[in-house]
Amino acid sequence: MIQIAVIGYGTVGSGVVEVIGRNHDEISKKAGEEIYVKYILDLRDFPGDPYEDRVIHDVAAIMEDPEIKIICETMGGIRPAYDFTKQALLQGKSVCTSNKELVATHGPELIRIATENKCNYLFEASVGGGIPIIRPLNYSLTAEKIDSIVGILNGTTNFILSKMETEGADFAEVLKEAQDNGFAERNPEADVEGHDACRKIAILSSLMTGKNVRYEDIYTEGITGITAVDFRYAKSMDMTIKLLAVSVMLADRLYAYVAPFMIGRDHPLYFVHDVFNAVYVHGNMLGDSMYYGRGAGKLPTASAVVSDVVDCARHLGKTIMCFWDSENVQLAPVDERIGRFFVRVAASAGVSKRAAERFGDITVISPQAEDEFAFLCGPVSEAEFAAKAAGLDGLISRIRLN
Amino acid sequence: MIQIAVIGYGTVGSGVVEVIGRNHDEISKKAGEEIYVKYILDLRDFPGDPYEDRVIHDVAAIMEDPEIKIICETMGGIRPAYDFTKQALLQGKSVCTSNKELVATHGPELIRIATENKCNYLFEASVGGGIPIIRPLNYSLTAEKIDSIVGILNGTTNFILSKMETEGADFAEVLKEAQDNGFAERNPEADVEGHDACRKIAILSSLMTGKNVRYEDIYTEGITGITAVDFRYAKSMDMTIKLLAVSVMLADRLYAYVAPFMIGRDHPLYFVHDVFNAVYVHGNMLGDSMYYGRGAGKLPTASAVVSDVVDCARHLGKTIMCFWDSENVQLAPVDERIGRFFVRVAASAGVSKRAAERFGDITVISPQAEDEFAFLCGPVSEAEFAAKAAGLDGLISRIRLN
Question: How high is the ipTM of this complex?
Answer without folding.
Answer: 0.94
